[in-house]
Write a structure and sequence with these properties.
2 domains; two-stranded antiparallel sheet; elongated; Herpes Virus-1; mainly alpha; 2 strands
């Protein structure tokens, strides 16, 4: 007899007495995602990959330097708006633009690069605006 998960890729065939035992551990059986709030039922074979890489309910660290909160991916945009970018949000830790803090973090080399880039743009604008 074939496994009832044959349509999902299981090619095991066994005697009727072994079907139930096999189906309980079949790698193609649907299982619940371990992430709270997720209703998807990935196959056992890909459940770890789903939970860690594909699930919209997987926990992610907030990208804003210094925040440190862990938020479900599906709620990250709301977290960023409420806590960092929206009105009444606490903004970026240690002052400065939340967007720049999210991109730069505490990396001094990247910060210096962005500072030089902005200074260069400002000098070019002044030159072209007043001298041409």
């Amino acid at each position: 007899m074939p496994c009832r998960h044959a349509d999902a890729g299981c090619d095991e065939e066994m005697v009727a007495a072994k079907v139930a035992q096999h189906e309980e551990r079949c790698p193609h059986r649907p299982v619940a995602c371990p992430n709270p709030g997720c209703r998807e039922r990935p196959r056992a074979l890909s459940a770890a990959s789903h939970a860690a890489l594909q699930c919209r309910h997987r926990p992610l660290r907030c990208p804003v330097a210094g925040c440190g909160e862990t938020v479900a991916e599906v709620r990250m945009e709301a977290h960023l708006r409420a806590e960092h970018f929206g009105r009444g949000g606490r903004g970026a830790p240690n002052g400065g633009s939340a967007l720049v803090q999210a991109i730069v973090g505490n990396n001094a080399v990247v910060g210096a690069f962005f500072t030089l880039l902005l200074a260069s743009l400002l000098v070019n604008w002044i030159f072209f605006h007043f001298y041409l």
